Amino acid sequence: MQNFLYDIGTKIYFGEGQIVHLPEAIKPYASKVLLVYGGGSIKKSGLYDTITQLFRENGIEWKELSGVEPNPRVSSVNAGAKLCKEFGLEAVVAVGGGSTIDCSKVIAEATFYDGDAWDLVTKKAPVTKVLPVFSVLTLSATGSEMDCGAVISNLDTNDKMSVAHPDARPKASILDPTYTYTVSQYQTAAGTADIMSHIFEIYFSTVKTAGLLDRMAEAMLKTCIQYGPIAYNDPTNYEARANLMWTSSLAINGLLSYGKGTPWSVHSMEHQLSAFFDITHGVGLAILTPAWMRYVLDDSTVDKFAEYAFNVWNIPMSEDKYAMANAAIDKTQAFFTQELHIPATLHEVGITEDKLEIMAEKSAVTLGSTYKPLTKEDVMNIYRACF
Ligand code: NZQ
Ligand code: ZN
């Protein structure tokens, strides 16, 4: 295990009805806020009315930015930052899934920058200061409610890039599992795959640890495997929604990666698919993950895959580690396609082969020191295996 500083500064209000604590969380920081949300699910569910009523009762003034897109665009970030500057807003309150929270984080960063927010995402300009961010989570997937990263898209240039700053981690997040009852089966499946991918990206690491970190990771994977299909088939099952929600936060808030950081593999490949074809992040991950696992399985990784097979999928220990590993990869793929009903191929989600080369080239830039280093050719091979 490597050295680390444990510092996860998000206050979590977890459980049904915890929204009443939102004003008390915000008020030490702000009395005028930007309320950010997506395409309208919070209006349909009544959450918008609940929050604005709480704001009125507690003397919190607000402006709104609505219509944040899945795979949030930098244009939305710029629009939000403009409102914060114009009205002297003091905090950003995100209500929604990862896209809304990510957009809010970069709005909070761009409020203190005079140019295009894209400069912050591309690192052309540094993030210097960040407005306090709060979130009310409505979709269990990204973990953005408890991490400091954000992923922003620029469809003009087919770029999807992440930016992270410690101060962008939400000061407080409301995690009420009942808010995820209305999430569609498709997004429930995608969210579960995304949570699992965050765990895989850390579990399969060049830093060898067979202790606490891996056991926690396995417990989280098993939680997704148990509760993902329940939430998919029974959307108002509180235990299922609650387990997925808390796992989504813990999977990527630093807990699993402290002492074990290595660059991620599959996310880089997926972000290119989203950047060029605007697909759902978790669906892309579910398609790529089994292909990536098969591609990186070799003598240097087989023991880890056998450990995954035994501890996560209950595949019996055997002399033949490759058989164990392959059985676990098959089970992973069957889980995504048969239990969560996610398409098995890139072709089914509208990806065409003409963009593979440019996507592989852009993706490979960050894959030189991953679990198994990947070149552009390797990424091409993994993409091709998904058709
Ligand atoms: O926009 P609305 O109307 O709210 O509808 C959304 C959207 O259409 C809907 N939805 C959300 N909550 C709902 C609901 N529908 C009904 N009931 C509810 N309670 O779901 C759709 C997808 O929402 P989105 O926020 O895009 O999904 P997700 O949470 O999966 O976020 C995906 C984005 O986060 C990025 C992804 O790349 C992608 O851009 N990621 C962010 C990360 C981070 N900040 O750490 C890490 C991840 O790996 C990921 O890259
Ligand atoms: Zn993800």
Automatic annotation (TrEMBL):
Matches recorded under SUPFAM superfamilies: Dehydroquinate synthase-like
Enzyme class: oxidoreductase
Domain Fe-containing alcohol dehydrogenase-like C-terminal: 188-386
Domain Alcohol dehydrogenase iron-type/glycerol dehydrogenase GldA: from-to ranges: 10-177
Stored Gene3D superfamilies: 3.40.50.1970, Dehydroquinate synthase-like - alpha domain
Family matches, as Pfam families: ADH_Fe_C, Fe-ADH
EC number: 1.1.1.-
Keyword set, alphabetical order: Oxidoreductase
GO molecular function, one term: methylglyoxal reductase (NADPH) (acetol producing) activity
A GO CC term attached to the entry: cytosol
Annotated protein name in UniProt: NADH-dependent butanol dehydrogenase B
Higher taxonomy: Bacteria, Bacillati, Bacillota, Clostridia, Eubacteriales
Gene: bdhB
